Amino acid sequence: MLNSDLKTIIVMGVSGSGKSLIGNLLAAKLDGVFEDGDDFHPLSNKAKMSTGTPLTDDDRWPWYATLRQRIEDMRHLTPIYVLACSALKPIYRDKLRAHDADPTLRFVLLDGTHELIASRLAARKGHFMPPSLLTSQLATLDPTPDVIRVSIDQSPEQIVADILIKLESA
C-alpha cells in the first residue's frame, strides 16, 4: 500500500530512459494523471535542444517554475500526479520539490547503461532531443540518496511493478 501522503511521483532520467512510457503506465496503475514535462518546454528550449545544444540553467529555471506550479495545480485535480522530467541535478529536483517532504513527492530514477539507452535513442524517431546529447546528460546526472533507482533493463510492466514495490517500502 502506497503512503497516503504521496501526491506526486516524478519519473526522472536521461532522454531515452523511458520516462513517458513508464510514467503513463504508472499513472494508469495508480488511477492518477500523467504528464510529460517536455510538453511544458517553451519552443525556444525545444529549438535549442533540437540543434544539439544543451540547455543552460538560465534556460531551465522558467521551465522548472512552470512544472512546480503544475504540480501544485494538479494536487486539486487528482489524487496522484505522475510527471516525467529529467531532473538530472539535485538543484533541479529542489526546484520541483519546493517545500514538499518525501512522503508527498518522490523521485524515481529510470536507470540504465549508456549502451542500452543509446540503442533506444537510435530507434526513436521524431523527438526533439538528439541522441548526441546522451553523453552530456549522463555526465550531468547526479542522483542523491532520496532518489528511488529502478533498472530499465526489464519489461515496462516489470519496471512499474518494481517502482510500486520500492515506493511502498520507502
Structural class: alpha/beta
Low-confidence stretches: none
N- and C-termini, Cα separation: 11 Å
> What fraction of residues sit in β-strands?
5-15%
Mean pLDDT: 91
Order of helices and strands: EHEHHEHEHHEH
Q: Biggest sheet, in brief? A: 5 strands, parallel
Helix content: 40-55%
From the alpha carbons, calculate the radius of gyration and give it in angstroms: 15 Å
Q: What is the strand tally?
A: 5
- The helix tally amounts to 7
Morphology: globular
Give the arrangement of secondary structure elements.
Blueprint: E1 8-12, H1 19-29, E2 33-36, H2 43-50, H3 57-74, E3 81-84, H4 90-97, E4 105-111, H5 114-123, H6 134-140, E5 148-151, H7 156-169
Parallel strand pairs: 1-3, 1-4, 2-3, 4-5
Structure description:
This protein starts with 7 loop residues before the first strand and ends with a helix. It is globular. Helix 3 runs parallel beside helix 4 (90-97). 32% of the residues are buried. Helix content is 45%, strand content 14%. The mean pLDDT is 91. It has 170 residues and is α/β, with parallel strands linked by helices. It has helices spanning 19-29, 43-50, 57-74, 90-97, 114-123, 134-140, 156-169; strands spanning 8-12, 33-36, 81-84, 105-111, 148-151. The chain contains seven helices and five strands; from the N terminus they run E-H-E-H-H-E-H-E-H-H-E-H. The protein has a five-stranded parallel sheet with strand order 2-3-1-4-5, with helices on one face.
